[in-house]
Input
Amino acid sequence: MTPFMAAVEAALAGDSPSSSSVASPRSAPVGVAATTSHQVAVRALAEQIVCEANAVLARHGRAIALTDEVGDGGLAFTLTIEGRAVRLDAAGAACLEEQDVPALVLALITGHELATARPG
Output
């Protein structure tokens, strides 16, 4: 069992904080190639994290769906569970650091708010 799978199990048992936080969004302009590369990295990590979460959730009769979207000149993906969803396009993914993806998935599973941590 991975550390993230243990975190999912703890969240299902009610042993998780009522909110998760992610780092402050990036504010510096980034080129299209770098933004697209980052979105692909976030999407790949999301797939790994969703697989780990679903291994635990399956024992509870639950699952997260990951759906890719292409078109309109952009890439996006949506994570959905029990009527809750989060959609990340390239601009949304640019606001996340890769280490924020597990917190995003845990917030989706628990239905808790996802706060943005502000420095200082």
The beta strands are 19-22, 65-71, 74-81, 84-89, 113-116. The chain has one domain: 3-115. The chain has a mean pLDDT of 82.
